[in-house]
Specification:
This protein has about 160 residues and is of the alpha+beta class. About 25% of the residues lie in helices and about 30% in strands. β2 and β3 form a beta hairpin.
């Protein structure tokens, strides 16, 4: 089992260089997994739609993970662009990042988080289920998507 990696997690602008690089690494990985680049239904996240964006950094300052919150019109928020670099997967970084995202949601007065992941991401499915997220019907732009799975967790 990999050794735990200590990280600091802080808000960064959605379009900061490290945030953009992490999001691009996520997109590249997903494009490879799905064999195409049209695997996400709906409106692409932007700085305007994801006002809370976090970046996890190692002690030497390397950006190794990210994730944000997109408030939903019907209440709650959707976790967007959650990603942990493969080099630190299994080291506790993803759990620390998810907890920080949940703390940000609570600070915003939210009581529920939703997320979408894909059928080609069994590792993400196992992670979210292990962390207390339960399957829900597809919502919003994901309704009718054959590649989407949706989850929620009360806070």
């Amino acid at each position: 089992m990999p050794e735990k990696v200590a990280v600091t997690i802080a808000r960064e602008h959605f379009d900061s260089p490290d945030a953009a690089a992490l999001r691009q690494a996520q997109r590249d990985e997903l494009d490879e997994r799905y064999g195409r680049d049209d695997h996400e239904p709906g409106e692409k996240p932007t700085a305007a739609s994801v006002p809370v964006f976090l970046v996890a950094r190692t002690a030497d300052g390397a950006a190794v993970g990210c994730g944000g919150l997109r408030p939903l019109s019907g209440g709650g928020a959707e976790i967007k662009r959650m990603f942990v670099h493969p080099s630190v997967r299994g080291t506790g970084v993803a759990v620390a990042l998810l907890r920080a995202i949940e703390d940000e949601a609570r600070a915003m007065g939210l009581d529920r988080l939703l997320l979408e992941t894909g059928t080609g991401q069994p590792d993400a499915i196992r992670f979210y289920e292990r962390e207390g997220y339960t399957p829900i019907p597809l919502f919003g732009p994901y309704v009718g998507s054959g590649l989407s799975l949706c989850y929620a967790r009360p806070l």
